[in-house]
Design brief:
With 455 residues, the chain is α/β, with parallel strands linked by helices. It has helices spanning 8-17, 26-38, 69-74, 112-120, 151-169, 183-194, 229-237, 248-251, 255-258, 284-290, 297-305, 313-333, 387-391, 401-404, 441-452; strands at 44-47, 53-57, 63-65, 96-101, 104-105, 108-109, 125-126, 139-142, 176-181, 215-221, 239-241, 244-246, 269-270, 347-351, 354-357, 360-365, 368-372, 392-395, 427-430. The protein has a seven-stranded parallel beta sheet with strand order 7-8-1-9-10-14-19, with helices on both faces. 44% of the residues are buried.
Length: 455
């Protein structure tokens, strides 16, 4: 079995089975009866991951993501590509705003089941920022944000939400609980370490614990703590959306996607024999050398045909270089030693049974070095090399188990760098795919037991 992008067969299968109930189970039924005795009055915030928030035009209200079922199944979503300011090399305001969780659509369930479990089992009420809480009962809040933008923007919006919740509860010292999925977990970890400060302008990443002082418990679900090779795939091959694909040139416009890249110390690319190539994925010259992404001649021709959508090639290249470097610093900022600062040990939940992209392989073809993303692409396999084993690791199809645990490779005997300080001891794994983790019944059991247990 091999990790693959979403396919038409899978999507149609999900349309039939996506609404199946996940509870009650004996554990959740017990929690439902007992939650009044152990009820936590601490509010919970759900932080979704990439593509986890709905986006709509702020003036017309027309939804750009995900939109109708037909759009989800057939659109290439070029409207999601950000326009680039040639002077600042930053995205322009395109008028899209986050309007809520992408909880479910077309029979696919992303966050609806976790919301239902919080309400029906945990006894939480849905909270709305700006509404005072006077009954002393816990609320849950959905944190919607523009997942295309730099994660520091999400961090600052999260802090603003927490401050509003504090005002609503009438408690300026209130701490909240966080449930963060996928990329959302990276924003939460940054916030915990550095608060709302932007520490990515240089090579010094002070850890102040500014955000940690506003948090009580953190649950990270399918978070790529050491990055994801799948993100490299998006830059080379586009992002599968329904039955269509957002082209790689659209992905490149989104600063957050760079910040999903594998850690600088990760073994993410090898020779045909499996020897690490030690290439720097955050160096634009590496991409230029291989003719990848904005340096691909086909991509450059596509850009030239649509000057109203895409910037000039030289602007795109400078934008690309800037956000690669910023992503390098983002990744390191989550991994540097914390010193005497006390952070919150999160509960890590993830998948461990789906073959997940872990490495690319470079094959020489007619004098060209060609990136192979999956074993089926390899034309002349080297004798004795198991490419499934080389290119995949256990995970959830998008995030490897080793990345979730903060390990650069899936090999316990390999020592970690002295320049990193990341270790997760509280972890729980299920056999599940990345986009279905939030509805997994065993995850819901672990989540609610953790949130409802006494301090």
């Amino acid at each position: 079995m091999r990790a693959r992008a979403a396919t038409a067969v899978f999507l149609l299968f999900a349309l039939v089975l996506g609404g199946c109930a996940t509870y009650p189970t004996p554990v959740l039924a017990r929690l439902s009866k007992e939650h009044a005795a152990v009820r936590s009055h601490v509010p919970v915030i759900i932080v979704p991951g990439l593509m986890g928030s709905r986006l709509a035009d702020r003036k017309t209200g027309v939804e750009a993501w995900p939109g109708s079922t037909r759009k989800l199944l057939t659109s290439g979503y070029l409207s999601l590509a950000l326009r680039i300011d040639p002077l600042t090399l930053e995205p322009k305001d395109d008028g899209l705003i986050a309007t809520g969780l992408f909880d479910a659509a077309a029979g696919l369930d992303f966050y609806r089941k976790v919301v239902n479990a919080l309400q029906e089992v945990g006894g939480y009420k849905r909270g709305h920022p700006g509404e005072p809480v006077t009954d002393h009962e816990a609320r849950f809040y959905a944190f919607a944000y523009d997942w295309r933008q730099d994660n520091i923007m999400a961090v600052r919006a999260l802090d603003a939400l927490i401050e509003q919740i504090r005002r609503d509860y009438g408690d300026p010292e209130l701490r909240v609980d966080i449930i963060a999925h996928s990329m959302g977990g990276l924003s939460v970890r940054y916030y915990e370490r550095s608060g709302t400060a932007d520490v990515l302008e240089g090579n010094y990443f002070p850890v102040t614990g500014a955000g940690a002082r506003k948090l009580r418990r953190i649950v990270l679900l399918g978070t790529p703590n050491e990055g994801s090779v799948s993100a490299i795939h998006y830059f080379l091959n586009g992002y599968q959306v329904g039955l269509s694909r957002l082209p790689n040139v659209g992905v490149v416009t989104m600063p957050s996607t760079y910040q999903l890249f594998p850690h600088p110390q990760a073994n993410w690319i090898t020779t045909m024999r499996g020897a690490p190539l030690h290439l720097d994925q955050f160096d634009a010259e590496v991409w230029r050398r291989f003719g990848w992404s904005v340096f691909d001649e086909d991509v450059r021709r596509r850009i030239a045909r649509h000057p109203g959508i895409w910037p000039a090639p030289d602007v795109f290249e400078r934008y690309f270089k800037k956000h690669l470097e910023r992503a390098r610093r983002f990744v390191w900022s989550l991994d540097v030693p914390v010193g005497d600062v006390r952070l919150i040990e999160p509960l890590q939940l993830g998948g461990d049974c789906v073959p997940t992209p872990a490495r690319l392989v470079i094959e020489e073809v007619g004098g060209d070095s060609v990136a192979r993303l999956v074993p089926e692409q390899i034309q002349r396999p080297a004798p004795g090399v198991d490419y499934d084993r080389l290119m995949y690791e256990p995970g959830d199809g998008s995030v490897t188990k080793s990345s979730l645990l903060g390990e650069h490779v899936f090999e316990p005997s390999v020592s970690r760098s002295e320049h990193t300080d990341i270790e997760f001891d509280k972890s729980f794994f299920v056999c599940e795919q990345h986009d279905k983790l939030t509805g997994n019944v065993r995850f819901l059991e672990q989540l609610l037991t953790y949130l409802l247990s006494p301090d």
